[in-house]
Amino acid sequence: MHTFQKTYETLKAKLLDINTEVNLLKDDVDRAIEQTCGPLGNLGIGNTHLYHLTYCNFEDNEDDECTFVPLRFVISQVIPDHTFGSKIGHVFYDSATTYVSKLTSKVFQPADAYCIRFYFRLYAVTTTGAIKLSLQVGEHPGYPFHSIPASNLPAKMWILAEASPDQEYIQHPFKIILENNIRTYVYIDDIMIFNTRCNTDDRH
Ligand SMILES: [Ca+2]
């Protein structure tokens, strides 16, 4: 019993040491970020240089960071989910068999750069239609900044799309609009929006 007690005390002391070290490390990291990018936390509200990521995986209607309207998705037994790489999960698609769908985001704040990434998957090969990205600034119906034509796209494969809007469009608050009219079912998953440039522009 005595040995157990001693081991417990030793472990507890070590864990407290580690906890102190981690807190010191976090303070160092925060200080380094603040020196480079400006204030963090509540002081950082309005600091457009802070890194923000919005992630939409369509897995949870309540807690998802997904900010797109309409928030419709399916539990797919036929089309695998991209998030988990399995047949259990959720993706967005146009369930009205019109082969037309439109997603509109929340308002994003101005920054020097933005990257929009997402994965999409075609049910069948077709040459008709495209996925189009545009920005809505104020009441303007939308500045198009990227288009992915259906021609030459393979079916039944998740494809990464990535694009950065021109800087002139993101000097004011804006919404991102994703419109699809490819003439087959198109599944969309794992939309990521962050306020820096993409590493590899225009994969698709
Ligand atoms: Ca998903």
Short description, anyone?
The protein has 204 residues and is α+β, with helices and mostly antiparallel strands. Helix content is 18%, strand content 30%.
Descriptive account of the structure:
With 204 residues, the chain is α+β, with helices and mostly antiparallel strands. The chain folds into two domains: 2-44, no CATH class; 53-194, Jelly Rolls (Sandwich), CATH 2.60.120.200. Helix content is 18%, strand content 30%. The chain has one helix and ten strands, in the order αββββββββββ. It has one helix at 2-37, and strands at residues 53-56, 74-75, 90-93, 101-108, 115-122, 130-137, 143-149, 159-163, 174-180, 186-194. The strands form two sheets. Strands 1, 2, 3, 5, 8 and 10 form a six-stranded antiparallel beta sheet that branches. Strands 4-9-6-7 form a four-stranded antiparallel beta sheet, with no helix packed on it. Strand 6 and strand 7 form a beta hairpin. The longest helix has 36 residues, at 2-37. The protein is flat. The chain starts with a helix and ends in a 10-residue tail after the last strand. The mean pLDDT is 83. The structure holds calcium ion (CA). Residues 57-59, 81-83, 89-91, 189 line the site of calcium ion (CA).
CATH class of the largest domain: Mainly Beta
Helical segment count: 1
Cα(first) to Cα(last) distance is 65 Å
Assembly annotation: single chain
Rg on CA atoms, Å: 22 Å
**SSE order, as H and E?**
HEEEEEEEEEE
Q: Ranges with pLDDT <50 over ≥5 residues?
A: none
CATH topology of the largest domain: Jelly Rolls
* CATH architecture field of the largest domain: Sandwich
Structural class: alpha+beta
Number of domains: 2
